[in-house]
Amino acid sequence: MQQWADISVQTPAHSPVAGLLTYRHVVTTENSPGLTEGTLVRVPLGSRELLGVVWAVQDHPPATLKEGSVRDIAGVLEALPPLSAAWRQLVQFAAHYYQRSIGEVAMAALPPQLRDLNATQLARRLKKQAAHTAPPAYAAGLPLSAQQTQALAEIAAQPGPFLIFGATGSGKTEVYLQAVQRRLEADPQAQALLMVPEINLTPQLEERIVARFGAEQVVSMHSGMTPAQRLQSWLAAHSGRARIVLGTRMAVFASLPHLQLIIVDEEHDPSYKQQEGARYSARDLAIYRGRLEGAKVILGSATPSLESWHHSRPAQEGGRYQRLLMPERVGRGQLPWVRRVDMNNQPRKTVLSAPLLTAIQARVERGEQCMLLLNRRGYAPVLHCADCGWKSECSHCSAFRVFHKLDRTLRCHHCGFTERVPRACPACGNADIAPLGRGTEQLEEHLAELLIHVRRPDGGPVHILRIDADSTQRKGALQSQLAQVHSGEVDVLVGTQMIAKGHDFRRITLVAAINPDNALFSSDFRAPERLFALLMQAGGRAGREASQSAQSEMWVQTFHPQHDVFAALKKHDYPAFAASQLVEREQAGLPPWSFQALLRADARSQDVAQAFLNAASHALQAQAAQDPDLDGLLAQVSLYPAVPMSIQRVANVERAQMLIESPSRMALQKVLAELHPTLHAQRALPAHKGLIRWLVDVDPLAI
Ligand code: ADP
Ligand code: ZN
Ligand code: ZN
Q1: Is residue 166 lining ligand 1, measured as CB closer than 6 Å?
Q2: pLDDT grade, residue 130 (50/70/90)?
């Protein structure tokens, strides 16, 4: 017997063969009963052999197939159960929605090592996997607070999806764990997926889950794992042996044959959006997957994304998610008292205002911890020559190189270009070049000078620790630095947003945002939302221990103390902030009241990048003149002219973007699909010589 199968394989992003490829399979008595949908296979493509997934099988050749043009499947990975219909549907939906090929999404969703193994090697790997063990008794959960009990009852009784809107430290994580536990106990096969923004940032959570459910029940999935570890986790989940997958955004594609519960912790976090290849939102796909597989979905945050908040408005008003409220912190831990320092009243160039410095000093002398947030790493964002005006620009990017004093380098944070700091101004020879602005390195240095005479209760000097992308490059560095904070060794923690998220620091009583104003004037309409979330999260690190005698504090140094963001922060009033933002968004026709996609082009010159995008847009409009359906669609969709990106040049590549916007998600999707062949056609034109690549970002997070 013979079969013809449509198979998804990895093809280059802009190749003309973007879809599924057809192969033949000869079924013999040895390999019967033949292929089914979802089977993993190896197929020849050109001179290579690639991994593929069977998408459809027929027992006669497709009519369109040219005689003799079809090749045979090279091997079938029989040892693996086929991927489920739901998994394939998820991949197909994601490919379609985010405008990529099925093969690309499917292959990115599978562990990389699977691509390199033939059937024999894979069978050997599978043998090594532990045998199925009887489910152990789980460790008991904490006795629940009233609001935790209430949330769990709603989750059990309602279909969802749910949005838990819970204060930092309100015990959301405990609700997730007990919801998982109930599912796993109710059904001996059930599997749960728990997604977090970044696992490495919160090793505590992994420990907590393993302690509760046992190491053999839980696997992790994130990009920090070795290919061998990723394969092992994937196989454990695919076989049903692992009951819980704890992972970052990539885990949304994990193969989980008995998936019943999906949890997305800190659902507002931008790291759920993939920023290359298929630019998917793992949070949005989680909602889709839950509906597809009949799994309950729980999103949780203290500062939900405005999209999720909007979806969880009352059902009478059109809300589709159920909002569960957990306003109180566990125990008696109080939310911090927010204090705004008006920097207009401080001497010029003040880094730490006098009242903040006094407060830090008092906390440290009492043995309490402080956390200082500054969202800029390095010593200073720019070096500058006052004589001739030279600045430390990157020669490859339209950006400045950052001065790192510790290793005396100028480093571009966009392309990585690094040089020793020059001894004198490269333009005029002036020996007196100076840093402009400040980063975490400088703050750490400055603080050490200011606190030099301060003593801890034990008489020792103040211990300051900096945590940012530079201090944590070495493997294990972050873990050991966090451990120093938890143990109480550290008195003052200085860092970027890395320290603001998720950590359950027990002894921090003062949190300060040193210079949060930049985000207020960003051209990105999501900047206020993001700043508010960051500050609420940062403030949420303070006062988590109820036994602390003193009221905890969150300090904000700003030149705009009356700004809405800070006024809402002072009241810890996310709902009021969200309501005012949503009104503004509605008036401006922005998401969630509209849907957006960005079309981006990279080229050798800015002219070509823009011309390519504009030409595609014009071609589409010309096509609409002949096609009433398309014309009707375009009437609902705005195609804006191409503009340079905010950082126009990176690593000598010029970047342009074009915004496409519509109140109808469907219309936007259809127009994007129509645009696809148009873009391919434009690419080949001589006028667009020098074009490097183009891509589509659907529901972009940054404009
Ligand atoms: P969130 O995820 O909302 O920030 P967590 O679930 O991490 O909150 O809870 C904050 C702290 O309170 C943790 O240290 C946790 O162990 C503790 N906690 C949570 N629920 C309870 C409870 N029911 N009883 C006692 N302590 C709890
Ligand atoms: Zn100079
Ligand atoms: Zn650069």
Answers
A1: yes
A2: low
Whether residue 147 has its Cβ less than 6 Å from ligand 1: no
Report which DSSP code applies to 223: T
* Whether residue 358 is found in the same domain as residue 492: yes
Q: Where are the alpha helices (DSSP H) in 218-272?
A: 227-238
In the listed set 299, 327, 355, which residue is the last one of a domain according to the structure? 327
Residue 448 Cα, ligand 2 centroid: separation in angstroms? Answer: 31
Residues 526 and 637 in one domain: no
Residues 181-236: tens digit of each pLDDT: 999 999 999 999 999 998 776 677 888 899 999 888 999 999 889 999 999 999 99
Tally the domains of the chain.
Answer: 5
* Cα 481 from Cα 499, distance rounded (Å): 11
Q: Say if residue 389 is in the same domain as residue 363.
A: no
Please report how many Cα atoms fall inside a 13 Å half-sphere around the Cα of residue 180, on the Cβ side.
28
Q: What confidence tens digit (pLDDT) does each residue in 476-498 have?
A: 888 899 999 999 999 999 999 88
How many residues can be counted in the chain? 703
Query: Alpha helices of 557-605 — where are they, by DSSP H?
Result: 564-570, 574-588
Q: Look at residue 523 and tell me whether its pLDDT is greater than 90.
A: no
The sign of the torsion formed by the CA atoms of 138, 139, 143, 144 equals negative
Q: Which CATH number fits the domain that encloses residue 638?
A: 3.30.70.100
Boundary (domain end) residue, out of 327, 362, 396: 327
Cβ–Cβ < 8 Å for 517, 558: yes
Note whether 362 and 505 are same-domain residues. Answer: yes
Let me know whether 150 and 279 are in one domain: yes
Least confident range of 281-285, 471-475, 575-579: 471-475
SS (H, E, C) 9-53: ECCCCCCCCCCCEEEEEECCCCCCCCCCCCCEEEEEECCEEEEEE
Question: Judging by beta carbons within 10 Å of its beta carbon (0-12, 13-18, 19+), is residue 530 exposed, middle or buried?
Answer: buried
CB 14 within 8 A of CB 99: no
617 Cβ contact list (under 8 Å, min separation 6)? 639, 641, 642, 658
* Within a domain: 136: no
Mutation probe of ligand 1 site: the residue of 145, 149, 150, 173 with most atoms within 8 A of C-beta: 173
One domain, residues 352 and 276: no
Q: Which of 164, 165, 170, 174 to mutate to test the pocket of ligand 1 (most atoms within 8 A of CB)?
A: 174
Range of the domain at 553: 333-377+440-588
Q: Are residues 177 and 260 in the same domain?
A: yes
* Mean pLDDT to the nearest integer, 540-562: 82
Q: Which listed ligand is nearest to 390 at the C-alpha?
A: 2
Q: Whose CA is nearest to atom 20 of ligand 1?
A: 171
Buried b / exposed e across 304-335, counting CB within 10 Å, b at 16+? bbbbbbbbbeeeeeeeebbbbebebbbeebeb
Q: What is the DSSP string of 290-301?
A: HHHHT-EEEEEE
Mean pLDDT of 634-647: 95
What pLDDT band is residue 504 in, cutting at 50, 70 and 90?
A: confident
Q: What angle do CA 521, 443, 362 make, to 5 degrees?
A: 105
Q: Report which residue type is found at 538.
A: A
**322 and 193 inside one domain:** yes
Nearest to 102 by CA among 234, 10, 5, 4: 10
Confidence at 141, pLDDT banded by 50, 70, 90: confident
At 559-584, the pLDDT tens digits run: 999 998 999 999 999 999 999 999 99
Domain containing 252 — which CATH number? Answer: 3.40.50.300
pLDDT at 131 over 70: no
Q: How far is CA 559 from the centre of its chain?
A: 30
Q: Which residues contact 404 (CB under 8 A, 6 or more apart)?
A: 378, 379, 410, 411, 441, 470
The whole-model pTM stands at 0.93
